[in-house]
């Protein structure tokens, strides 16, 4: 996946770059509107991460540019403003998703991958993780061909884990991914454990391995070995 | 007291002083004039008597109660020949039979080689009559003028003070939040010109300060989100580094939680500012029943994870003239509150009817009076993770949308009631 990060805050762009850069993701950074347009004129990207507030132009202008160029890149807007109007305007101009600062990098990662999947494999999308395969079109999970019954939250949790495999996910990150702003008021996110437990039980019952490793006091990691 | 009433009363007081003094002066002048006239008539009478004596009329025939003529042999030193001596005296009034003030004239004249002393009196104009007349005239003048003054002052003042009244009205309706410059009609009165000038200066400054404060709080709220995002990202990267010690993990997590609290605080404060600035005006009516149902559905999951039972009794088709986004925040905050301050294995009851929305849950008694919990950063438990802004937002939303919100704690049950306008 080729990713362009348009973000003027260098420290934030660095964070994103170091977190996302893996074997599968090539990440480039543009720090201004001009630089972004220059890059977009020459290269093509799968996904563009766009900060709506840039020093030398509005991020929405980048959206206009991409629309004019009939770009096929997926677009994720990040903004410090949590305003409905900005969100609606961004999505109307062809952005795929909208994320408010501050965000968890794991959340950003999951959203970028979701956009990538939607854009790249429009028809059939299947994510495989060893014996587990997830059909994101029909929201179905199967282990070695055998279909599993998961609740909506369990499905989202599994997808979040696979998107962030081998990464540490805190309980807070998981809770906010599953319930969004509705849990920000809680002192403890221990209740996440219930869903983890159920998911674990269902996977092992269906003959899968238990990939979810508990990191004591902190959270969980979806681990390959 | 109105300014014009004060001024009129003051004028009336000064007027009464002036009229009293002029009454006294008038009285004195009149009395002096009367004395001169009486003296003149006494002197004329004396001339007539002199003629009669010359003609040889007998003295007795000329005498009467008011006129005494005596033939004197020689001029005594106290006598004044040809010289009029006037004085005031009291004499018996022939009809009233009482002493009345009279004017007296004494003079000695030489007629046909003989000396006659004339001693004549004449009734003086009565002082009572004069003072009565003066008082009468002065009183009439006073009341006449007073009445005219009153009528004029009230008529003129309404015209004179018109610019002032308009200025007052402008100040009364002035609202910092309406981004409107204050302007006044042109007036020719210097004082009002100055006043209007000062007010324009003051309101302009207040408006500028308010706008910059508003911009500051808006900018501060979202400008701080980027550094928070940076710090949060660094912590996540730190979590990814190999060979992390187990005791380092809780430190990272605490830092993450503190950062997210900081971020929420910024967002909540900016939300409060936005509500205050009427950025969520109700252009539509919101199906409140549907909204509460949705919220209940959203939070049911979380409530159950915390082992709370959620019971709702929601009447259908209740609509309110409120912005949907803001109504959602209102209901969510009430439910979040009920979940957060519940007892272990507790319950939440939500009741919606035409009159009100009630959210109740069991809980510990609040440590501060319940109505104070609507204030910013007021919390029952100061050390808790809560921001202390949830209920402040609820209150602000209710205030802006003409809803009434009450917090009641009774028999270990917290009850939040939002009353709808009738």
Describe this structure in words.
The complex is a heterodimer of chains A (225) and B (422). Chain A is an alpha/beta fold and 225 residues long. Chain A has two domains: 2-120, Rossmann fold (3-Layer(aba) Sandwich); 126-222, Winged helix-like DNA-binding domain superfamily/Winged helix DNA-binding domain (Arc Repressor Mutant, subunit A). Chain A is 40% helix and 24% strand. Chain A contains eight helices and 14 strands. In chain A, strand 4 (53-54) and strand 5 (57-58) form a beta hairpin. In chain A, helix 2 (33-42) packs parallel to helix 3 and helix 6 packs across helix 8 (192-205). Chain A is globular, with a radius of gyration of 18 Å. With 422 residues, chain B is α+β, with helices and mostly antiparallel strands. In chain B, 54% of the residues lie in helices and 18% in strands. Chain B has ten helices and eleven strands. A five-stranded mixed sheet of chain B has the order 6-8-9-11-10. In chain B, a hairpin with a 2-residue loop joins strand 3 and strand 4 (114-123). Chain B is rod-shaped, with a radius of gyration of 50 Å. Chain B starts with a helix and ends with a strand. Classes of the chains: A alpha/beta (225), B alpha+beta (422). At the A-B interface, helix 1 of A face helix 6, helix 7, helix 8 and helix 9 of B.
């Amino acid at each position: 996946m080729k990713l362009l990060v348009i973000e003027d805050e260098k420290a934030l762009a660095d964070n994103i770059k170091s977190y996302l850069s893996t074997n599968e993701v090539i990440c480039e950074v543009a720090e201004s509107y001009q630089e972004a347009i220059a890059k977009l004129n020459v290269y093509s990207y799968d996904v563009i991460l766009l900060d709506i507030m840039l020093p030398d132009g509005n991020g929405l202008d980048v959206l206009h540019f991409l629309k004019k160029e009939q770009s096929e890149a997926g677009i994720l807007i990040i903004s410090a403003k949590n305003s409905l109007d900005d969100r609606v305007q961004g999505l109307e101009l062809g952005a795929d998703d909208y994320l408010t600062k501050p965000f968890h990098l794991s959340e950003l990662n999951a959203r970028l991958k979701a956009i990538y999947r939607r854009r790249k494999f429009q028809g059939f999308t299947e994510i495989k993780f060893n014996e587990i395969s997830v059909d994101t079109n029909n929201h179905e999970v199967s282990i070695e061909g055998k279909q599993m019954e998961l609740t909506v939250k369990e499905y989202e949790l599994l997808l979040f884990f696979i998107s962030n495999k081998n990464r540490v996910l805190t309980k807070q990150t998981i809770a906010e991914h599953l319930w969004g702003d509705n849990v920000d008021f809680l002192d403890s996110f221990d209740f996440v454990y219930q869903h983890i437990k159920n998911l674990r039980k269902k996977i092992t019952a269906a003959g899968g391995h238990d990939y979810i490793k508990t990191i004591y006091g902190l959270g969980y990691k979806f681990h390959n070995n | 007291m109105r300014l014009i009433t004060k001024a009129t009363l003051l004028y009336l007081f000064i007027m009464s002083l002036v009229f009293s003094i002029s009454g006294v002066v008038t009285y004195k002048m009149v009395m002096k004039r009367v004395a001169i006239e009486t003296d003149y008539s006494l002197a004329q009478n004396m001339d007539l008597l002199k003629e009669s004596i010359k003609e040889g009329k007998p003295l007795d025939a000329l005498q009467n109660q008011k006129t005494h003529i005596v033939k004197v042999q020689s001029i005594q030193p106290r006598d004044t020949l040809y010289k009029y001596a006037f004085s005031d005296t009291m004499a018996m009034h022939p009809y009233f039979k009482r002493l009345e003030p009279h004017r007296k004239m004494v003079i000695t004249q030489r007629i046909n080689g003989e000396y006659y002393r004339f001693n004549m009196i004449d009734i003086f104009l009565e002082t009572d009559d004069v003072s009565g007349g003066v008082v009468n005239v002065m009183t009439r003048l006073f009341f006449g003028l007073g009445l005219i003054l009153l009528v004029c002052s009230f008529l003129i003042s309404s015209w004179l003070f018109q610019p002032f009244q308009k200025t007052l009205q402008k100040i009364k309706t002035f609202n910092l939040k309406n981004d409107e410059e204050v302007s006044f009609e042109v007036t020719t009165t210097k004082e009002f010109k100055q006043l209007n000038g000062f007010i324009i200066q003051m309101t302009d400054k207040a408006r500028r300060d308010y706008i910059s404060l508003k911009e500051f709080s808006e900018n501060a709220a979202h400008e701080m989100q980027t550094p928070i995002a940076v710090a949060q990202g660094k912590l996540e990267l730190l979590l990814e580094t190999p060979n992390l010690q187990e005791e380092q993990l809780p430190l990272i997590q605490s830092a993450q939680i503190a950062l997210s609290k900081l971020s929420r605080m910024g967002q909540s404060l900016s939300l409060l500012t936005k509500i205050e600035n009427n950025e969520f005006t109700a252009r539509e009516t919101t199906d409140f029943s549907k909204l509460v149902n949705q919220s209940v559905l959203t939070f049911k999951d979380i409530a159950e994870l915390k082992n709370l039972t959620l019971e709702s009794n929601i009447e259908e088709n209740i609509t309110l003239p409120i912005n949907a986004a803001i109504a959602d925040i209102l209901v969510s905050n009430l439910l979040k509150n009920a979940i957060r301050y519940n007892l272990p294995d507790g319950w939440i009851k939500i009741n919606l009817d035409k009159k009100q929305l009630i959210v109740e849950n069991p809980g510990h008694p609040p440590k501060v009076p319940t109505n104070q919990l609507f204030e910013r950063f007021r919390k029952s438990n100061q050390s808790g993770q809560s921001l202390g802004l949830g209920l402040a937002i609820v209150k602000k939303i209710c205030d802006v949308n003409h809803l009434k919100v009450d917090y009641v704690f009774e028999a270990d049950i917290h009850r939040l009631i939002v009353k709808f306008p009738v």
